[in-house]
Every structure is written in C-alpha cells, then in structure tokens.
Amino acid sequence: MSEEKKQVFSVKSIVFIGVFAAVIAVLAQIAIPTPWGIPITLQTFAVALTGYCLGKWKGTLSTFVYVLIGFIGIPVYAGFGVGPAKLFGMTGGFIWGFLFLAFGCGLEDAIQKKWLSILFGIMGLLICHVCGSIQFALVSGQSLGESFLLASAPYLVKDVISVAVAYGLAIPIRKAMDLKKNKKAGISPVE
After folding, report:
1. What is the CA angle 188-165-117, rounded to 5?
2. For position 48, which CATH number holds?
3. What would the pLDDT profile of 121-170 be if each residue is shown by its tens digit?
4. pTM higher than 0.90 for the full model?
5. φ/ψ of residue 189, rounded to 5
6. Interatomic CA distance for residues 18 and 50, integer angstroms
7. How far is CA 121 from each of CA 109, 153, 164, rounded to the nearest angstrom?
8. Which domain holds residue 35?
C-alpha cells in the first residue's frame, strides 16, 4: 500500500478542510439582521456546500473547525459573533446543529441518486433546526413551540433552497477538486 493511502488526511485534504471552514466564516458575515436576533445569513448554504464537497467526515470536521475557531475567540459567527457566550446563547444551537447538516449533506458520497442526496441534506438541516429551537427555548425561557415559530420556521424555506443550491454547486466544485493526476494515482481528492 502506498504511503499516501495510509495517511488519514493528506495535505490536500487538510487544506480543503481549512478552506471550507474559511468559506463558512466568510459567508456567515453576509447577514441581514432581524428584530428577533437571528440574522438571515448564508451560513446554512456554506455548511451544506462544505458537506457536499468534502463528504461526511471531512465536511463535518471542517464545520467543527469553524465552530471551534469561533469558540476560542476568532469572530467568525454571524455578525462577527465570537466566543462561548455566542455558542451557548440563544442562537448557538443552530451553530452546533451545523455539524449534523454537514454530515447529512456529506452522505452524498455514498449515494448515487440526486434526490436521496438532497433528502439526507434536508434531514441534516431539520436536525440543525431542532438543535437551534431547543437551545433558543432553553436560553430564552419560551416554549419549544414559540421558539420554533420565532427562530426556525421563518428560515426553513430559505434553508431548504440553500441545501438544494449547494448540492447543485458542489457538483462542478468536486470535479474541479478532482485533479486528473489524483485519478491516475488512485487517490480521492478529499482523502
């Protein structure tokens, strides 16, 4: 077995994990504030794109890197939010939920049917919204139903569209990531 196949992560994979964590951080800053405190951002789109491009494990790891760098003090969350207060605040459940979204979208690696790939992405999205609604309810003191109606329901249509668009854009991005020399060497582009 070649030395490259024995590695858990190649240098190229580490670079892609970092690049996609940065993509999430940048797209999180494109935000429209709302009166109820949860901005409309492109984070969901960026996380879904990360999962679809990198696969379930590396996509989830890239998303975790994004969560971690925000936690330790680099202002990468929406509106340049930062730190434990943001992560454990009213909207922090959505940030944790992004891990499930990335994993669900990353299942596309094992699935050849387009509709099933999008369905798994939407399932990850729903888990993300459940996490967000629960934490919003716990921190705000509102009921789970009120929290869902305020913090989740207004974003569901936008987020489902974000997952579908991310799937479509991931196809050419994955092709660009898959260099011919890697195919000849038998190395997957994101391994």
Report:
1. 55
2. 1.10.1760.20
3. 999 999 999 999 999 999 999 999 999 998 899 999 999 999 999 999 99
4. no
5. -65, -25
6. 11
7. 12, 17, 8
8. 3-180
